[in-house]
Design goal:
three-stranded antiparallel sheet; single chain; alpha+beta
Length: 199
């Protein structure tokens, strides 16, 4: 193989320098365009409060004409939920306060613990939760995750507030979970040999 002479090598070097500068310019333009065009579906921890509230309400959809609030009984100390009514002196035409973005904002900021009525007025439901709180809740959560993955059903799992249990959430794009849950429960019964502590 004959060695490349100096002139050819130097010319090739200059060509590569020019090409490198062009690539740097293209990369710079790409970064500028990418930063100036926001993906409307982008969501992260730095999203605005409005986006976070909108996401929450898109998942937890239920009755909009009423919501419940957690209370602690003054005598027994037990907790519960009750529908929130307008104060009697406001003379509202309706009795109950609606579930809206203001309620969700207060809930997410920890100012109140709000509860939603999941069955809508047209008899639909957009989410389902399984409450695991017995001693083998970790095993049960693993079984449900395995079955859901095999059935192609997306789920979200969170630890209970007590730390001794889990909540497994299912969210549906369309109302009516009765049809959506059938494949899951059929498969679940196949993997489970004993009665589970599903509430």
């Amino acid at each position: 193989m004959s060695p490349i002479d100096y002139e050819k090598l130097f010319a090739l070097y200059n060509d590569l320098l020019i090409e490198n500068e062009k690539l740097k310019e293209e990369l710079s333009r790409y970064k500028t365009n990418k930063s100036s065009v926001k993906d409307p579906t982008e969501f992260n921890m730095y999203a605005s409060p409005e986006k976070k509230i909108a996401l929450f309400m898109s998942l937890f959809k239920g009755r909009e004409d009423v919501y419940a609030k957690r209370f602690i009984h003054s005598q027994t100390g037990k907790t519960g939920y009750a529908p929130v009514k307008y104060p009697f002196w406001k003379n509202q035409e309706i009795d109950y306060m609606p579930y809206n973005s203001e309620v969700v904002n207060e809930h997410l900021r920890g100012k109140v613990v709000a509860g939603i009525f999941p069955i809508t007025l047209d008899n639909n439901c957009y989410f389902l939760v399984i409450d695991l709180d017995k001693g083998n809740w970790k095993e049960e959560a693993s079984i449900i995750r395995e079955v859901a993955n095999q059935q192609g059903i997306p789920i979200s799992i969170e630890r209970s507030q007590s730390g001794e249990g889990a909540h497994i959430w299912f969210f549906f794009r369309r109302g009516g979970f009765r049809q959506s849950r059938a494949p899951f429960w059929n498969a679940s019964s196949y993997y489970s040999d004993e009665q589970k502590s599903f509430d």
